Amino acid sequence: MLGANTEIYAMAAATPGGLGASSSVTINGQAVATAYGYAKDVTNLEYVMDLSPANDFTSSATTIEMANATTPSTCVVTYGAATATTTPTYTPNYNGC
Questions:
Q1: How far apart are CA 85 and CA 87, in angstroms?
Q2: Using H for helix, E for strand and C for coil, what is the string for 33-67?
Q3: 72: exposed, middle or buried (C-beta count within 10 Å: 0-12, 13-18, 19+)?
Q4: pTM of the entire structure?
Q5: Which residue, 6, 34, 10, is CA-closest to 20?
Q6: Cα 17 to Cα 32: distance, rounded to the nearest angstrom
Q7: Rounded to an integer, what distance in angstroms lies between the CA atom of residue 18 and that of residue 73?
Q8: C-alpha span between 44 and 94 (Å, rounded)
Q9: pLDDT tens per residue across span 28-80
């Protein structure tokens, strides 16, 4: 997640207005919505990530879960989008893995 977001931020920094509260960049032909240069949410972050095989993962706007885990809801990484004063956060929970 961090690596993908680093790529998104680099593209945003090279785009006029790309580091604002709401913008977008194009990576691999896909428009990626950004907030302060980082992925706006998990949906946009996934455009740059290679989750393979895809059916091993489930996601929402703020989480990516390991679908085949003992307890998927506690085998998860929660994404906190960037704000004007903070960089994104990545909070893992491995309890159900």
A1: 7
A2: EEECCEECCHHHHHCCCCCCCHHHEEECCCEEEEC
A3: middle
A4: 0.91
A5: 34
A6: 14
A7: 33
A8: 23
A9: 999 999 999 999 999 999 999 988 888 999 999 999 999 999 999 999 999 99
